[in-house]
Amino acid sequence: MKNKNFIHLLKPAFTMLELIMVIVILGILSSLAIPRMDRDYKQEASDSMLSHIRYTQHLALTDNKHKFDKAKWQQRFWRIVFSTCTGDNRYFMIGADDDMESSNNAFFDRNESAIDPSTSKPFFWTSGQACPNGGDGSTSEEVFISKKYGIKTILAQGGCAGTSATTMGHIGFDNFGRPHYGFGLSTQPNYNSFITQPCSFTFTLSDDETFTITIEPETGYAQIVGQDDS
Predict the structure, then answer these.
(1) How far apart are CA 55 and CA 76, in angstroms?
(2) Domain chopping of the chain, boundaries
(3) Which of 39, 42, 63, 135 is nearest to 92 (CA)?
(4) How many CB atoms lie within 10 A of CB 52?
(5) Residues 91, 143: contact at Cβ < 8 Å?
(6) CA distance linking residue 179 with residue 61, whole number of Å
(7) Total Cβ atoms within 10 A of residue 192
């Protein structure tokens, strides 16, 4: 009886060999994870830009801006705009020109901008804010892509080529998700802004690394060039 009670008092535990094996496995996993801790700015930037372009298209699909009783309603398309601010810094904005007072660069007012779902702040910048320093805190820091990712140039080509070195291009979407360019001065619903060739934005980082995002005509499908799974 005494031996039996003694056996019941014994509790299961790790052996020294098992503890050593756990330590070895943890060491291997740590060695694999450490290289991934270095930021891959190029991948982060390309994923972010692709996400914002797709978000713009999503807004167009879910928030119909068509007003067929207004001659200039095409100016209301949801769009993403790339441009420069103080110190030659690059930024973007997402919004829709609801009051149809846009100019050819497709800009819009602060109250017409889209809201960053992660911060509830607008995807917007105006000359009254400090662009190089990331704004005044009232807008989404995502828009200041020179500060965030080191993007120094943006080249718009194809269906969304910029009209000047400062505007650097934009792309908008209608309620079917189809891409449009140059709709800022539309005075009648003739769909002349509908792009017929692929649009591409090429971003250059401070280390001269580049990545390109293309948007297909008709479908508006966007992807990172060279990353078929993007």
Answers:
(1) 16
(2) 41-224
(3) 135
(4) 21
(5) yes
(6) 11
(7) 11
- In this structure, are residues 198 and 46 in contact, taking their beta carbons and an 8 Å threshold? no
Integer Cα distance of 50 and 56 in angstroms: 10
Residue 155 belongs to what H/E stretch? Answer: strand 151-158
Distance between CA atoms of 45 and 153, rounded to whole angstroms? 13
> pTM of this prediction?
0.80
Q: What does the alpha-carbon distance between residue 87 and residue 131 come to, in Å, rounded to a whole number?
A: 8
Classify residue 46 as exposed, middle or buried by CB count within 10 Å of its CB (0-12, 13-18, 19+): buried
Helix (H) or strand (E) holding 50: helix 41-62
**Coil, strand, or helix at residue 203?**
strand
pLDDT digits (tens, 9 = 90+) for 92-131: 999 999 999 876 678 899 999 999 999 999 999 876 556 6
65-69: long-range contacts (C-beta < 8 A, 24 or more apart)?
A: 65/96, 65/98, 65/175, 66/174, 66/175, 68/189
| Cβ atoms of residues 172 and 77 within 8 Å | yes
pLDDT tens digits, 127-159: 655 665 555 678 899 999 999 999 999 999 999
Cα separation, 117 vs 55, in Å, equals 10
